[in-house]
Amino acid sequence: MTEEEEERLTEREGDGERERERERKREKERERERERERDLEEERYVRGQKWLEERRDTE
What we know:
It is a single chain. By secondary structure, this protein is mostly helical. The chain contains 1 helix and no strands. The radius of gyration is 26 Å and the shape is rod-shaped.
């Protein structure tokens, strides 16, 4: 293998590693988004339960 071929192979390997790193970052961001959604759902549920309790107390 010539030096030029080795250099191109190294560049492709580097590109692959950069792409894997970008994918890891995208997956982390997706996980953070899922956590935010779960937190919002939980907050809505708790508010709904409080509202129901208040409504029962006033009836």
